[in-house]
């Protein structure tokens, strides 16, 4: 598992920049907001007092009140303030506060408004998104059916133009090390931020090396009609599976409960809340699954297969090629991108979809090098359908 260790070192280099991102510029904005508020409020009350005295309005209160009430008070009274997604993703909540807020669940199941359920695409990246132009094409014309969240290293300054789907979609982030709990922390942070938008119903974790294999309509209908969430999860014997289990996790997690699976998942809203709200499994995995136990391959996979086995499909939607051997999967570059390459992926497997055999098993694929972008853009409309 050498590549993981290398990446881990890269993570460490960035340590001094921890948590500077969140606090930048925000207190100033809050201060400005309150100042404007104060001046407005004072102005309105002085003005109305003057008017009451001058015109000797007998029953002043009902007449004056509507002009005094500032617009944000009106919003608090309306359902809109509860269903509108946050306008700015850069909040100042820490993880404890964020996870608590994100774990709110309505107890009445039918929504008192027309809710179009959205898919949250959550990009866990180091920095840039080399496949952004392909994703832009994928999302084109689908506004209102998706939202995007990006967790990059805190030191990375994203610079997308306002016309981009990635513009201002960065969430407050922290340094993340591959194979360690900080990786699961980042995944939970992405889920929690996405949960703040009540219209997000499905949550997909992706990396900068992922691409979509199908167009948005197919992805949306496949995910929205599935009875299961796509968390890859299996019981693997041998050193890289059961070999990573630590007996100190029993009886919460026994050896037969131990699962492994790819990091890249899709979960529905109920499972996303479960993951964000977990305080039971988290400390066990934090203490007893450390390299060479790579916690992002075991924590959610094991927890969900104990808690809600009937809700997960036990397979991932993201294709990856381990056939070249070695400790890490194949990375595809310019020379790999041909029509036959995708035919091979599409024909590679039969899986279960809603308990029926299906040949449509993968909606995404990894890992793609930046050099793959140009040929991908050339054949995407013909081969990938967008
Ligand atoms: C977040 O802030 C609260 C209140 O100050 C504190 O109790 C909590 O420990 C903080 N959490 C983190 C992860 O820093
Ligand atoms: C693990 O084993 C113990 C003892 O047999 C049992 O009480 C416990 O429920 C098991 N845990 C799980 C998650 O099945
Ligand atoms: C996934 O695996 C669990 C056992 O871990 C099983 O109970 C469940 O039925 C499986 N899900 C599907 C859709 O087959
Ligand atoms: C998506 O792809 C399918 C099959 O390739 C095609 O029938 C459909 O028209 C495409 N939808 C859009 C919106 O491009």
Question: How would you describe this protein?
Answer:
The protein has 386 residues and is of the alpha/beta class. It has a domain of 236 residues. It is 38% helix and 11% strand. It has 14 helices and eleven strands. The strands form four sheets. Strands 2-1-3-6 form a four-stranded mixed β-sheet. A three-stranded mixed β-sheet has the order 4-11-8. Strands 5-7 form a two-stranded parallel ribbon. Strand 1, helix 7 and strand 2 form a beta-alpha-beta unit. It starts with a helix and ends with a helix. 30% of the residues are buried. The N terminus is likely disordered.
List the helices and strands and how they pair.
Layout lengths: L1 H12 L12 H30 L4 H9 L2 H7 L2 H4 L11 H8 L15 E7 L7 H8 L6 E6 L29 H15 L4 E8 L3 E2 L3 H9 L4 E4 L33 E3 H9 L3 H8 L10 H9 L4 E3 L3 E2 L19 H8 L4 E3 L2 E3 L5 E2 L7 H12 L2
Parallel strand pairs: 1-2, 1-3, 5-7, 8-11
Antiparallel strand pairs: 3-6, 4-11, 9-10
The structure holds 2-acetamido-2-deoxy-beta-D-glucopyranose (NAG) (4 copies).
Subcellular location: Membrane
Keywords: Glycoprotein, Glycosyltransferase, Membrane, Transferase, Transmembrane, Transmembrane helix
GO molecular function, one term: glycosyltransferase activity
Q: In DSSP terms, counting alpha (H) and pi (I) runs of 4 or more, how many helices? A: 14
Instruction: Give the rounded overall mean pLDDT.
Output: 87
Low-confidence stretches: 1-25, 46-69
Largest sheet: 4 strands, mixed
Q: Termini, distance in Å? A: 36 Å
The small molecules bound here are: 2-acetamido-2-deoxy-beta-D-glucopyranose
Shape: globular
Widest beta sheet: strand line-up: 2-1-3-6
Task: Indicate the structural class.
Answer: alpha/beta
Strand content: 5-15%
What is the H/E order?
HHHHHHEHEHEEHEEHHHEEHEEEH
What is the tally of beta strands? 11
Q: What proportion of the residues is helical, as a percent range?
A: 25-40%
If you compute it from the alpha carbons, what radius of gyration comes out, rounded to the nearest whole angstrom? 24 Å
């Amino acid at each position: 598992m050498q590549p993981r260790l290398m990446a881990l070192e890269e993570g460490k280099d960035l340590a001094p920049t921890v948590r500077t991102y969140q606090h930048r510029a925000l207190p100033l904005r809050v201060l400005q907001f309150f100042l404007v508020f104060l001046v407005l409020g004072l102005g309105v009350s002085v003005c109305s007092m003057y008017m009451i005295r001058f015109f000797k309005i007998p029953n002043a209160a009902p007449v004056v009140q509507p002009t005094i009430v500032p617009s944000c008070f009106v919003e608090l009274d309306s359902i809109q303030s509860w269903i509108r997604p946050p306008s700015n993703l850069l909040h100042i909540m820490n993880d404890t506060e964020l996870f608590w807020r994100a774990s709110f669940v309505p107890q009445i199941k039918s929504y008192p408004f027309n809710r179009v359920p959205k898919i949250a695409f959550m990009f866990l990246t180091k920095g840039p998104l080399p496949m952004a132009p392909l994703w832009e094409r994928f999302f084109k014309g689908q506004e209102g059916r998706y939202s995007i969240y990006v967790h990059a290293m805190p030191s990375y300054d994203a610079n997308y133009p306002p016309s981009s789907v990635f513009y201002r979609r960065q969430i407050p982030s922290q340094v993340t090390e591959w194979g360690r709990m900080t990786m699961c922390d980042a995944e939970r942070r992405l889920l929690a931020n996405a949960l703040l938008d009540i219209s997000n119903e499905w949550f997909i974790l992706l990396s900068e090396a992922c691409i979509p294999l199908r167009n948005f309509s197919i992805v949306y209908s496949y995910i929205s009609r599935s009875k299961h969430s796509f968390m890859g999860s299996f019981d693997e014997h041998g050193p890289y599976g059961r070999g990573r289990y630590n007996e100190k996790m029993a009886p919460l997690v026994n050896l037969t409960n131990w699962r492994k699976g790819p990091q890249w998942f899709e979960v529905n809203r109920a499972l996303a809340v479960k993951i964000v709200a977990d305080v039971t499994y988290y400390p066990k995995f934090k203490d007893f699954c450390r390299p060479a136990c790579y916690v992002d391959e075991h924590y959610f996979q094991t927890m969900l297969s104990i808690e809600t086995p009937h809700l997960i499909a036990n397979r991932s939607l993201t294709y990856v090629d381990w056939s070249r051997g070695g400790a890490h999967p194949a990375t595809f570059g310019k020379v790999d991108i041909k029509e036959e390459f995708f035919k091979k992926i599409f024909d590679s497997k039969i899986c279960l979809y809603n308990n029926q055999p299906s040949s449509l098993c993968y909606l995404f694929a990894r890992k793609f090098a930046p050099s793959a972008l140009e040929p991908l853009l050339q054949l995407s409309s013909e081969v990938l359908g967008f």
